Amino acid sequence: MATSELFSLHSKGGFDLQDIIVAPAFSLAAVVLTGIGTFSMFGYSFSDTLLSGSGMSVSIAFVVAFIGLAASWTTNRAGDGWDDLDEIESIAVAAGVIVLFGMAFIPAIQDLVLGSQAIGLVAFLGLSGAYTVTAWY
Fold first, then answer.
1. Does residue 3 fall inside a structural domain?
2. What is the pTM (predicted TM-score) of this model?
């Protein structure tokens, strides 16, 4: 049960208002980043590349997912570190971060994830797990 007010920046043991607002954008970005779906708005696709070179490819989806995950971590975990996470939660966050940065900066991971929708789905679940864990605490 949440222990803080609805509009507070952090309620321990529950989703905060800002996490609920950011969750749809993060989910759309994760779907596009892992290649299991597409999304465009106002003529811009989340898969559009903003910066590329030397094997890296930073897309709008990466930027949105990074900002969403960073905001979730900052508003909920700032100062706590890994202290309250058990092993499974730590693995979920680490897997999500590896997938997120691997998709942008490591071509082998990008090829692996985009090469199969099944692996893309697993990568999406890893990203979703990371966001859920950081948003909940």
1. no
2. 0.83
